[in-house]
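1st attempt posting a full record on here, be nice pls
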Amino acid sequence: MLTQTKRFLLSMKCADFIGAPGHHAYFSENEAARARILRFRERIRESVVDFMDEEYPVGGEKSFIVNMADGKPCLVDGNAHLVALITVMPDLTLENLIIALGRNDFVRLWENGWEDESGQFEPYDVYVPVGIDTTRIPGARVDTDWFKQPPAPTKVVPANVPYDSLRFSSHDRGLPLGETARCIIGFLLA
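the predicted structure (as tokens):
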């Protein structure tokens, strides 16, 4: 049975999700990052189903992870893919994507770092890029991202801190994914 929070997250526009700290600056300032999103965009235009099946294969480990932190939907994982999807489909919802693909295994929904029926004993850690200033966030720490190959240094913040929190510097603060998508499209039109 879906909780009210999960229903809300599935039905809201993905463009309204808050992107991870530092990602808007990364995508808007880094030409290689923009080029990657534009390559994704072209593949999505050819076939959104093929794109998702390749990037998020059935039984695979990758997921869009949305964490409701302090009442705000924050995208933990899948920023580049979701921004690319939004550039093609600005009104996209996860619910519509699930219907189009006929599966939901590529979506994980958290609430303050907790995932229903996960068997967790404590909230998941939320990784942010190592260059993000986390000095004003209680409980933040430097750690290793073991999901990267090879493992890489990262920073970890408590899952209840929303990505648009004033505790992050204005340059690092997460912005709605739709704003990042509009910025990427702006580079196309320039």
